[in-house]
Write a structure and sequence with these properties.
It is found in: Golgi apparatus membrane. The chain is mostly helical. The protein is about 70% helix and about 0% strand.
Length: about 240
Amino acid sequence: MDLAIRASLKGWKFVYLGDVQVKSELPSTFKAFRFQQHRWSCGPANLFRKMLVEIVTNKKVTIWKKFHVIYNFFLVRKIVAHIVTFTFYCIIIPTTIFVPEVHIPKWGCVYIPTIITLLNSVGTPRSFHLLFFWILFENVMSLHRTKATLIGLLEAGRANEWVVTEKLGSAMKMKSANKASARKSFMRMWERLNVPELGVGAFLFSCGWYDVAFGKDNFFIYLFFQSMAFFVVGVGYVG
């Protein structure tokens, strides 16, 4: 992405070939998938922080292209999308249950997100039956992506860390090597636990019960399902 942005700022033009297919491998474990998502979320945010001034002061591209790169490519897709998803659906909506004076209109929390989700799923009709689980899983991953985005923006902690994603093929080789070895290490239970996901799951679950007792908007239906998704990921029962 760094090279692509810099080349674009120098006036290079690219041709997208939609019919070109390449082989790829999936991350071998959920831990590897988390590292991959951290890199994909932290990297663009950190790149935006470093290149913002260079993009604004560049004289080889038009103002419209600068606006597109800053607003559409970086701000909306790489920063705002992650942060808004987590804060709105996992913090704001649950918190409003404790403040009855605050009312979120249904078009804002149900209709518009549903339309956007359906439009995004049009391109993959074969996976339409997984849409409900995909929504819950993406909301869970929004916690990890939000954290990574903030790390990239602030250039803190693991902002410049590069961890190569362990793919399925390499995992199979390691598995066969472990079988040949006399000693086989077992992962401890607490190493599988994801504490932030468990904490958010507990928060959503408590909000759901409070909504059952005192709420009027029936948010508990969503909160219980979403909390279960956080708990499943929190105990490492994924991948």
